[in-house]
């Protein structure tokens, strides 16, 4: 697979490299850092905190923001095209909102797990920037698109994420507290694909520093946004303790990547 | 010592030798050391002027500050345009006349800077800083040295009375206060009234100055007649068809008017909306001033009659070129016709006539076009719009069918080429006319004389029958036929049949170049369908963008004065001269830097960057500017021949490239705050007369540095990587 990607990059690069003025004053290659953010709507937090990447939830009405950090490499292949690769990193939580049916040893009960679980995400995107006809890459207005691979790693703390309850013994009618905290392996990995699209505007300061701003979306996340809002699932198993994270993490990952505004600072290397 | 003396004599001869107008004429050029205005930093000059202004007590300082900025840039623009002549024969002569006028006022004399301006307009004007510009058109029309002296006196009075700056202040005040309940016309009339008062004052004050000399006072009055009839040629000479006739070629009388219209006298016209009083009033004023003054010992010439006449002829020669520059071929032809009567052997005059004939042939075929931006917006005017003898020429141009005009042109141009075989331009026009003939359905058979039956047959039928008879014959057969029939009496009624007879018989070059009948074009009698400019790969992407990619390898360009202008409607003065000037300096650096980064060779020709010793660069700049002036008179895509200058080849050789890059930025901010930045870069192949690269883009943005850098670099990159 990697080999195929490399071949693809080489072919695309050579298609454009001999066409028109690439780069700014001959500098084609840039390295950038971008900060992406968007309002966090679904399952953001259980603590009502309002810091970036955590706070707020739909119940409290507080606004929370997703935060993504991105490192990117961009290479101008022609006056209007750039081929780029980026890695986005984000750290967030999933506020447990879904009810699951659990067996507390005596009977079945429907409960919503307390707390949250942690998500660390890495999104790899190979994308192309296509600049407006009057502009010269990497300067000017552009649109971008490309496939993205979302990887995420979840972890939870049983002291935080659990289901507490009370069960009555049907023989002696005594109540006793129950604590369910096994949501599968402490750390779980997930992978998904998406299609990134975006638009932006880049400016160049002192012929060296790139200031880039714009918005991005993950197309499949946008499409599935309606279903996420309606809590509609397709083809999944019934949510249970052992698949709770698997069933909910994708929705949260989509939420982080669905729509973001970004500000990037880059440097033209050569 | 003798060696140095000899060198001095040679140098003096080179500097002051007159042109031999009997044989030829070389277009006027600047020479010697350039004055300070070429080398000074305009921003410093403005700063000094404003500092000086601030020391004075004045209620109009704000307006005057604007005036000083605008006027300094205006003067610089005129002088550095390449149209102002420095240390040339005419300007030196004008300075001699000024010396006479100001013989008793050396201080004032030293304040004046007199320049000749290469403009065909009959006009002169002066600025508040002592700059006086006299147009070639005016010098060509002047009848005596005394008239020039009076005109100079008038302009000097404008300067001493500070009319220019006061007029500017007054106009601004009228504009500021005037529209309150008044129409635009009322405001215009108010401005004109003020201007007329100042003109009248300059007439009177000028006369006082003029009176101090020994010039004929009556000439002051007569100088207004020169202005009155400025729309007529510098001499009224009957235009005779015999000029283009030869022994074998007589142009029918039907192509000429039996009589021409009279000259309208509108000296007493309504001058309400004019900046100058009508000439009748001005003449009355001067006549009253002359009154009973003794004029008997006064003379028309103090410097020299011979020199005046020589200078005037130089101006008239130059005037032909200036008419060509704005593609006013009838006026150029008429002026050259007048000069040809005086200088029948002058090669330059012959060449001008050849150029005009060739250009009018192209005009008739639709190859030369005019548009709303052209000087002749609607093409060559109808004869009904013209007065007096020139009307005959306009009628002739309009009346003669184009194929016949082309034939007549070839007849004149080829004979001129025979007369001056070393003249490459004449050879080239001759060849082009052969091509034009080749694109018609006319060929040698149309010029073969045959004995015609004594039956009255219409001309066209004769031509057709001849054609069918001779179509089968070879070119040499046909020529033999011509020779055989040479002794027989010509009895064809088609008047032009014999036009080339002697050339067919005696000029092998003519025979070899004369085309065979073009059967391809026979169907369309108008012909010339293939004589079009080469199709170019113009891409009109949108109204905001237009581009042509270079098709040929371009390795070096002549960078012609990069341009930068900032216009801001939110400020009181919309043109931001000083800021534009600063930006222009940086822009030149950017352009050169981008070229350097990409190892693209440029050579800069900018009148703002010359040293005092580089008058030759100003001349080169002038040549290229004249080329562009003629080019821009037509549409971009037209391939109109550039006829006003023959020196373009010399410039190409000197700078080692035929490609000229015109590059610039215009930044505009509207009152609403909308910003626009226009970037353009055009490369003209001045050898082949075509646009070879074009990039024109409008951005809805500020003129940021990254925008400029990116676009300029892109231009050079595309040139560097052109095929």
How far apart, in Å, are the first and last alpha carbons of chain B?
59 Å
Shape of chain A: elongated
Uncertain parts of chain A? 7-20, 46-58
- Greatest interface and its participating residue counts: A-B, 18 and 22 residues
- State the helix count of chain B: 26
Distance between the termini of chain A: 29 Å
Shape of chain B: globular
- The count of strands of chain B amounts to 12
Strand order of the largest sheet of chain A: 1-2-3-6-7-10-11-12
SSE string of chain A, helix = H, strand = E? Answer: HEEEEEEEEEEEHHE
Mean of all residue-level pLDDT scores of chain B = 85
Class from secondary-structure proportions of chain A: alpha+beta
- Tell me which oligomeric state these chains represent: heterodimer
Question: Which tags fit this structure?
Answer:
heterodimer; A: 270 residues; alpha+beta; eight-stranded antiparallel β-barrel; two-stranded antiparallel sheet; 12 strands; B: 723 residues; alpha/beta; eight-stranded mixed sheet; four-stranded mixed sheet; 10% strand; globular
């Amino acid at each position: 697979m990697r080999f195929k990607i490399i071949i693809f990059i080489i072919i695309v690069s050579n298609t454009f490299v001999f066409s028109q003025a690439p780069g700014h004053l001959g500098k084609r290659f840039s390295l950038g850092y971008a900060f992406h953010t968007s309002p966090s709507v679904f399952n953001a937090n259980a603590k009502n905190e309002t810091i970036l990447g955590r706070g707020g939830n739909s119940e409290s009405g507080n606004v929370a923001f997703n935060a993504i950090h991105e490192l990117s490499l961009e290479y101008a292949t022609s006056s209007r095209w750039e081929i780029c690769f980026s890695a986005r990193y984000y750290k967030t939580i999933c506020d447990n909102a879904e009810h699951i049916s659990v067996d507390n040893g005596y009977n079945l009960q429907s409960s919503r797990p307390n707390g949250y679980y942690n998500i660390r995400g890495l999104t790899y995107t190979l994308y192309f920037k296509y600049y407006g006809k009057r502009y010269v890459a990497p300067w000017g207005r552009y649109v971008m698109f490309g496939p993205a691979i979302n990887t995420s790693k979840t972890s939870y703390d049983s002291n935080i994420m659990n289901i507490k309850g009370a069960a009555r013994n049907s023989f002696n009618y005594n109540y006793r507290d129950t604590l369910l905290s096994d949501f599968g392996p402490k750390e779980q990995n997930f992978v998904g694909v998406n299609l990134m699209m975006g638009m932006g505007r880049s400016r160049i300061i002192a012929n060296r520093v790139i200031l880039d701003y714009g918005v991005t979306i993950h197309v499949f996340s946008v499409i599935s946004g309606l279903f996420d809002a309606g809590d509609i699932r397709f083809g999944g198993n019934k949510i249970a303790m052992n698949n709770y994270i698997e069933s909910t993490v994708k929705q949260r990952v989509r939420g982080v990547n669905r729509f973001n505004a970004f500000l990037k600072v880059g440097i033209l290397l050569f | 010592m003798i060696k140095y003396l000899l060198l001095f004599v040679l140098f003096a001869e080179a500097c002051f030798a007159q042109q031999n107008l009997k044989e030829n004429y070389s277009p006027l050029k600047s020479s010697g050391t350039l004055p300070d205005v070429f080398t000074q930093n305009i921003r410093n000059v403005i700063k000094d002027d404003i500092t000086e202004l601030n020391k004075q007590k004045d209620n109009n300082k704000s307006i005057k500050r604007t005036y000083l900025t605008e006027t300094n840039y205006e003067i610089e623009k005129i002088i550095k345009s390449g149209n102002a002549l420095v240390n040339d024969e005419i300007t030196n002569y004008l300075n001699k006349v000024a010396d006479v006028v100001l013989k008793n006022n050396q201080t004032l004399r030293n304040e004046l800077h007199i320049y000749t301006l290469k403009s065909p307009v009959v006009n002169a004007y002066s600025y508040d800083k002592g700059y006086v510009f006299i147009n070639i058109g005016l010098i060509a029309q002047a009848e005596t040295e005394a008239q020039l002296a009076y005109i100079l006196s008038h302009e000097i009075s404008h300067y001493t009375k500070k009319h220019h700056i006061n007029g500017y202040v007054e106009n601004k005040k009228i504009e500021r206060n005037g529209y309150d309940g008044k129409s635009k016309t009322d405001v215009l009339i108010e401005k004109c009234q003020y201007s007329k008062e100042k003109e009248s004052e300059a007439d009177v004050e000028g006369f006082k100055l003029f009176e101090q000399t020994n010039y004929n006072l009556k000439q002051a009055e007569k100088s207004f007649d020169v202005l009155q009839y400025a729309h007529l040629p510098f001499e009224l000479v009957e235009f005779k068809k015999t000029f283009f006739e030869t022994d074998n070629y007589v142009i029918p009388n039907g192509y000429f008017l039996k009589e021409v219209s009279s000259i309208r006298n509108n000296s007493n016209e309504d001058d309400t909306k004019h900046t100058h009083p009508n000439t009748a009033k001005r003449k009355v004023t001067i006549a009253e001033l002359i009154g009973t003054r003794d004029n008997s010992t006064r003379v028309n010439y103090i410097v020299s009659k011979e020199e005046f006449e020589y200078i005037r002829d130089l101006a008239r020669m130059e005037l032909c070129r200036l008419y060509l520059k704005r593609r006013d071929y009838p006026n150029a032809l008429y002026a050259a016709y007048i000069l040809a009567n005086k200088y029948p052997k002058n090669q330059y005059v012959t060449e001008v006539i050849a150029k005009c004939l060739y250009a009018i042939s192209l005009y008739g075929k639709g190859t030369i076009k005019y548009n709303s931006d052209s000087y002749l917006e609607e093409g060559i005017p109808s004869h009904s719009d013209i007065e007096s003898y020139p009307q005959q020429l306009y009628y002739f141009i309009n009346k003669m069918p184009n194929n016949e005009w082309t034939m007549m042109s070839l007849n004149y141009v080829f004979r001129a080429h025979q007369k001056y075989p070393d003249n490459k331009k004449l050879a080239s026009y001759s060849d082009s006319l052969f091509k034009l003939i080749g694109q018609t359905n006319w060929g040698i058979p149309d010029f073969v004389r045959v004995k015609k039956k004594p039956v009255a047959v219409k001309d066209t039928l004769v031509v057709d029958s001849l054609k069918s008879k001779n179509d089968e014959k070879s070119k040499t057969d046909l020529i033999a036929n011509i020779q055989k029939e040479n002794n027989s009496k010509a009895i064809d009624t088609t008047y032009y049949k014999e036009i080339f007879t002697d050339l067919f018989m005696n000029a092998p070059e003519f025979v070899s170049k004369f085309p065979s009948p073009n059967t391809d074009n026979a169907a369309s009698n108008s012909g010339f369908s293939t004589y079009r400019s080469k199709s170019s790969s113009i891409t009109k992407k949108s109204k905001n963008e237009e581009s042509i990619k270079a098709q040929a390898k371009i390795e070096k360009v002549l960078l012609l004065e990069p341009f930068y202008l900032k216009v801001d409607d939110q400020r009181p003065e919309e043109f931001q001269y000083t800021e534009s000037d600063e930006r222009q300096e940086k822009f030149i650096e950017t352009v050169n830097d981008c070229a350097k980064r990409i190892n693209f060779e440029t050579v800069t020709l900018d009148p703002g960057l010359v040293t005092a010793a580089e008058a030759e660069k100003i001349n080169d700049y002038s040549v290229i500017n004249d080329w562009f002036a003629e080019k821009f008179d037509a549409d971009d895509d037209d391939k109109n021949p550039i006829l006003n200058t023959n020196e373009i080849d010399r410039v190409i050789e000197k700078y080692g490239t035929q490609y000229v890059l015109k590059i610039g930025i215009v930044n505009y901010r509207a009152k609403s705050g909308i910003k626009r930045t226009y970037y353009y870069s055009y490369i003209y192949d001045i050898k082949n007369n075509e646009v070879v690269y074009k990039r024109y883009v409008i951005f809805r943005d500020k003129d940021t540095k990254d925008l400029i850098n990116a676009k300029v670099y892109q231009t050079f990159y595309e040139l560097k990587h052109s095929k």
